[in-house]
Write a structure and sequence with these properties.
Distance between the termini of chain A: 86 Å
CATH topology of the largest domain in chain A: BirA Bifunctional Protein, domain 2
Helix content of chain B: 25-40%
CATH class of the largest domain in chain B: Alpha Beta
Structural class of chain A: alpha+beta
Distance between the termini of chain B: 90 Å
Strand order of the largest sheet of chain B: 27-30-31-35-34-33-32
Oligomer: heterodimer
Largest sheet of chain A: 7 strands, mixed
CATH architecture of the largest domain in chain A: 2-Layer Sandwich
Largest sheet of chain B: 7 strands, mixed
CATH architecture of the largest domain in chain B: 2-Layer Sandwich
CATH superfamily of the largest domain in chain B: Bira Bifunctional Protein, Domain 2
Radius of gyration of chain B: 42 Å
CATH topology of the largest domain in chain B: BirA Bifunctional Protein, domain 2
CATH superfamily of the largest domain in chain A: Bira Bifunctional Protein, Domain 2
Number of helices of chain B: 20
Number of strands of chain A: 9
Number of helices of chain A: 12
Mean pLDDT of chain B: 94
Shape of chain A: rod-shaped
Order of helices and strands of chain A: HHHHHEEHEHEEHEEEHEHHH
């Protein structure tokens, strides 16, 4: 009996060791430990064993079973690992094959520039508002201290619908509409389409966009205007950006200025983009003219304000180095995809 | 405005600056320098030489060999110039020097380097120069020969710097003068700014009394009928005019300012116009009938020939200068052919007047003639300047010996323009600027600007040439300019904090952009105005509301003449552009307004409606488009199922592939395949799909509020329904039955198969749905849904929809 068990054990372990897959291992398990397996057969023969030997033999059988099971388990683990290894090996892919993309669309460069501006000014506490694109002559001109017969009202600049209604030539009328609401203080920007009677070419378009800014409060100063726009320029063009304010003239601001920023391409050394000057003209601004405040029922003795106007296309063209304004309105997807 | 720096320095003699310093400082004080050009650009090693000996070249007929004394030595130069002679004093560029151009007047970038060499075997050690080679023209140097070497006058010091002698060490500056600074359209105005900017004294030309003992009133009388258009009219007379070229210095200044010298008389009027910014006119006195000038309006329909020979149509708002019988010039715009100065002129009538700027501007537009003079008048000139200018002109006449000036001036000037007075309030200026400039410093700025301070009344007295100074803010700007915009501190607004935000509309639009782009659409932008022809291209019927448009009175041509009432044309034009450029497929969207008149003709502003327009060709179909819309609705909280109706047919869309988009019973947009004829009209050779959402109709339903609904704990029971139905029944109708009969327990339904063809009888289709039922509180059992299914099936059957299998 002992020899038989020994034999079963040796043979089983030998078979287990030489098996090379999990199926075979299972067959061995059934053949040895199954209902009709060899070891089970031995157990069935226990009734022939003398009663006093039974515990001993029983112990022997159990040891044999335990040994075989341990071996089986050991082998099973080893084979599983091997199989997983093999599977992983067979599943190698060419990671340089093309990606499966969603082909997400692209935002217009004007909008990207506008969102940048909005982000900056909203962060400074400005509300973004809108006004009509077809506008009363009063809001577009008169209320902005551009009286009838002012050269800026010349037909060559303004599109007229009739003698009272025009296509707004600037976003400044939104200033007046906000001031008229009578809610002070005001911190707003107003982006939008504006129209001027310019023939289409590489640098002109009869329709383009501006972003108007207006701050009205007690104690607002020209120094505040400088500080605000300097911060804006740094956020838009980079921390090292320098600004320069030059006196200028606009009918609805006094004092007025134009702001240049240090060229963000050459850093101010002078290049093609800044025409060698190191500076790029970015916007017009100034302190709101007392006449404009008065017309909008704001007391200029009590309140001051500043305003600025930014050409959105100008920012987009400069920032993204687009050399022809017409590209912005052709909507060629090969152009749009670059943004 | 272009002016040589030498002319400015004539009035600011202590001004010593480099071109760049001048540019920067003037620009920062408000007189913007657009650019400058050095007249001695690329001129190097050029001296005055004298030809001491001249011989023929042995081997070339057209060349001569010159021995030229250049002060330090005598050098040999071979030249082909025809006008050289022994004793001639000439500009000589030495070996290694540089000239600006060739003798044809063509300038070379960087100039031309001159080296010694041999000409037909004879050594030549430099070059004698023409005025063109020196980078200039005969307009600047009228005495220069038309073809040949420039010859200096006798006595010019040999060996001296020729460029210096020619006055070419000068720079022409170009200024951008803003419309409010009328005074700076004259050299004196700019000189005043320069003097104030650099804190140097301003020395103006001294205008002396001129004229003989005669009285101008015996030569001419002036009557101004329309005083509203002519606040001042000054006239003086010059007898026995001697036409001749004006002196070189005057010609050079005019040429540098871009004005071609003609003769002393014309040059003097132009010179004074540049200097004082006051246009002048000269009439041939013999053509003035009745020795009388009458300033009055023309009559409607009048015609008049200006001195350029053109016949001009006039109207009763055009101011004319007339004599006793006839018009002799259009006031402020151009003189007449019938009174112009000719070679035969003997006596001249000088006019310096002030006309109403707006009238001149409008007249010049209607007459169709804009001149240097009208360009100045239309800005509104200072009438006090006119008298000074005409006296200056007469002084120049005398100095140049151009004629005999008659004593006195006819001056029709009823309401003399008075100086404005503004209260001096330094603390206000500082408060507006955020500065702390002392009162004394401010007064110092003002003094340099000729603004006087009356201490007794604490008033600033504003000179009449500064019409732009009207209020505190204007004065504050003067302080800022001379304190320096650069020196104003940098601060941020104090005061109450405000919340920065986008409007709700903008936030919804931002989601529209995100979704469109996520679905592969790129953002386009098209013009708000278009051609009225687009309606025909879009097959829009003649009587359609869409054809009622807001029209532009003065469009850039018909193609940009109406404000769009539909966003489709812009989209289809953009798709066509992409198609024509062979882009395989294109997906575009636009967020832009259409403009709908509330009534025509327009009395109030049109309604501007934001349209979210999508368009595509290539990949994708109707249902792709539908998917974008539903994604968008979902993201802006429009969670009800939109309905689609194809009842209202749009002519520009495929009749069988279009639908109105209905939300909560309201049409909020439409989508469809573009009609093949429209595609043809736009030259798009592929099927194209569009969708238009009317944002004002969407906004009331949009919300960014969200509420968590819980995640189902109990399992769903699903039933698959496979049906056969006539083809014309819409699956939407089937879904309506589910919605109506499904009750609370019906959680969702999902179409998983639709089929026509073999096995299905002609005219029918097979449609399969999976219905899912669920209760939040418990696990459903078979019997819970049996009732519901029965109701659904019953109603389907009534609609001629049969079950294939369950």
């Amino acid at each position: 009996m002992k020899e038989r068990l020994q034999k079963i054990r040796e043979e089983a372990i030998q078979k287990i060791q030489s098996s090379d897959n999990l199926d075979k291992l299972n067959e061995i398990k059934v053949a040895v430990l199954g209902k009709k397996g060899e070891l089970t057969e031995v157990l069935k023969g226990m009734k022939d064993v003398a009663a006093e030997d039974r515990p001993k033999v029983g112990q022997l059988v159990n040891d044999t079973r335990a040994a075989i099971e341990t071996k089986l388990e050991e082998m099973k683990k080893k084979l599983s690992e091997m199989e997983r290894e093999l599977k992983l090996k067979n599943e190698v892919i060419d990671v340089t094959l093309p990606a499966k993309k969603n082909n997400v669309g692209h935002r217009h460069p004007n909008t990207i520039a506008l969102e940048e501006l909005q982000r900056i000014f909203v962060g400074m506490g400005y509300e973004v508002v809108e006004g009509p694109e077809v506008e009363y002559d009063y809001y577009n001109f008169e209320a902005l201290n551009i009286p009838a017969n002012h050269p800026a009202k010349d037909e060559q600049d303004t599109f007229y619908i009739n003698d009272k209604i025009v296509l707004r030539t600037q976003t400044s009328p939104v200033q007046v509409r906000e001031m008229e609401k009578g809610k002070l203080p005001i911190r707003m920007i107003a982006p939008g389409r504006v129209f001027r009677s310019d023939e289409v070419d590489a640098t002109h378009s009869p329709s383009f966009h501006q972003v108007e800014g207006l701050v009205i409060d007690k104690n607002i100063t020209f120094a505040d205007l400088k500080g605000t726009l300097a911060q804006f320029a740094r956020e838009l063009f980079g921390e090292d950006t320098k600004v320069k304010f030059r006196p200028h003239h606009f009918p609805f601001t006094e004092p007025s200025a134009e702001m240049d920023v240090s060229c963000f391409k050459c850093g101010g050394k002078g290049c093609r983009m800044c025409k060698g000057s190191g500076w790029i003209e970015i916007l017009g601004c100034g302190m709101v003219h007392p006449k404009v405040l008065k017309m909008s029922n704001i007391n200029p003795e009590e309140y001051h304000g500043f305003a600025f106007g930014i050409g959105l296309e100008r920012i987009a063209l400069l920032k993204y180095e687009i050399d022809d304004m017409r590209l912005l309105y052709e909507n060629d997807t090969r152009f749009l995809k670059q943004f | 405005m272009n002016t040589p720096l030498s002319w400015i320095k004539a009035y600011v003699p202590e001004l010593h600056v480099t071109d760049q310093e001048y540019t920067d400082a003037m620009t920062l004080s408000g007189t913007k320098v657009e650019g400058y050009e050095r007249l001695d650009k690329n001129l190097e090693k050029i001296v005055v030489g004298q030809i001491v000996k001249l011989e023929k070249h042995p081997d070339a007929d057209k060349l001569v060999i010159c021995q030229v004394n250049i002060g330090t030595e005598t050098i040999q130069i071979v030249t082909g110039a025809p006008n050289v002679f022994e004793g001639a004093i000439v500009p000589v560029v030495l070996d290694g020097g540089r000239v600006a151009g060739d003798h044809d007047g063509h300038k070379t970038e960087g100039g031309t380097r001159i080296k010694k060499g041999k000409l037909r075997g004879i050594e030549s050690n430099g070059m004698m120069c023409s005025i063109e080679e020196l980078g200039s023209t005969r307009d600047f140097y009228p005495l220069a020969p038309e073809n040949g070497i420039y010859i200096f006058p006798e006595g010019t010091p040999v060996g001296a710097d020729a460029v210096e002698i020619l006055g070419l060490h000068d720079t022409v500056f170009e200024y951008e003068i803003t419309s409010n600074r009328v005074d700076c359209f004259g050299v004196i105005g700019i000189a005043r700014e320069a003097a104030a900017t650099f804190r140097k004294p301003l020395v103006l030309p001294e205008v002396k009394t001129t004229g003989n003992s005669e009285d101008v009133n015996s030569y001419i009388s002036v009557e101004v009928e329309d005083k509203d258009l002519c606040p001042r009219y000054c006239a003086r007379v010059v007898k026995n005019v001697k036409l001749a070229p004006s002196p070189e210095w005057m010609q050079r200044r005019l040429a540098a300012s871009g004005i071609r010298p003609i003769n002393n008389l014309v040059d003097i009027t132009n010179y004074v116009m540049e200097e004082y910014g006051q246009p002048m006119h000269a009439y041939d006195l013999s053509t003035i009938a009745g020795n009388k000038i009458i300033v009055k309006r023309a009559k409607d329909g009048d015609e008049y020939t200006t001195l350029d020979g053109q016949v001009r149509k006039l109207d009763s708002n055009v101011l004319m200068i007339c004599d006793a019988d006839k018009p002799v010039g259009i006031a402020g715009i151009m003189g007449g052919e019938n009174s112009m100065i000719t070679e035969e002129v003997k006596d001249v009538l000088f006019e310096a007047a002030c006309f109403d700027g707006t009238n001149i501007r409008l007249s010049s537009k209607r007459v169709g003639l804009r001149t240097d003079a009208s360009g100045k008048f239309e800005k509104g000139l200072d009438p006090n300047n006119a008298g000074a200018a005409i006296d200056r002109a007469c002084q120049l006449i005398e100095e140049l010996g151009a004629g005999e000036v008659v004593g006195g001036m006819v001056d029709v000037y009823d309401n003399k323009k008075q100086e404005k007075k503004i209260k001096f309030e330094p603390e206000k200026y500082n408060k507006l600027l955020g500065t702390d400039v002392s009162k004394e410093e401010m007064l110092e700025y003002f003094e340099r600007l000729e603004i006087q301070y009356n201490e007794a009344d604490n008033e600033l007295i504003i000179p009449t040439f500064r019409q732009d100074l009207e209020c505190d803010a204007d004065i504050a700007e003067e302080v800022a300019r001379f304190f320096g915009y650069d020196n104003i501190p940098i601060t941020l607004p104090s005061g109450e904090a405000t919340a920065g935000k986008l409007s709700f509309k903008m936030r919804v639009e931002a989601v529209a952009r995100d979704i469109a782009e996520f679905c592969g659409f790129s953002q386009g932008m098209s013009y708000s105005f278009e051609s009225p022809k687009v309606f025909d291209k879009l097959l829009i019927p003649e009587d359609s509301e869409i054809r009622r448009t807001v029209n532009i009175l003065n469009p850039l041509g018909e193609d940009f003449s109406i404000m769009r009432t539909t966003s489709l044309n812009g989209m289809l034009t953009s798709l066509a552009t992409n198609y024509n450029r062979r882009n395989k497929d294109a997906r575009l969207y636009e967020l832009g307004n259409i403009y709908l008149p509330k009534q025509l003709p327009l009395t109030e502003l049109p309604e501007e409606r934001m349209q979210f327009t999508l368009g595509m060709y290539g990949d994708g179909d109707f249902f792709t488009m539908k998917g974008v819309i539903e994604e968008f609705f979902d993201k802006i909280g429009m969670r009800d199922k939109p309905e689609y109706s194809n009842e209202d047919k749009k002519p520009y869309l495929h009749p069988g592939r279009q639908a109105d988009i209905i939300y909560d019973g309201r049409v909020v947009g439409y989508l469809g395949e573009v009609h093949p004829i429209v595609l043809e009209n736009y030259d798009i050779g592929d099927r194209a799909y569009v969708a238009v959402l009317d944002m004002p109709n969407i906004l009331p339903y949009a919300t960014f509020g969200r509420k968590y609904q819980g995640i189902a704990k109990y399992p769903a029971v699903t039933r698959d329904l496979s049906m056969v139905m006539p083809k014309n029944i819409l699956v939407g109708d089937v879904e309506k039955v589910f919605e109506k009969r499904g009750g609370k327990l019906l959680e969702s339904y999902n179409l998983f198969d639709i089929y026509e063809g073999a096995q299905i009888k002609q005219g029918y289709k097979s449609v399969a749905y999976s219905l899912s039922f669920r209760d939040k509180e418990r696990t459903l059992e078979e019997k819970d849904i049996a009732d519901i299914m029965e109701k659904i099936l019953k109603e389907l059957k009534e609609k001629d929809i049969e079950l294939r299998s369950l």
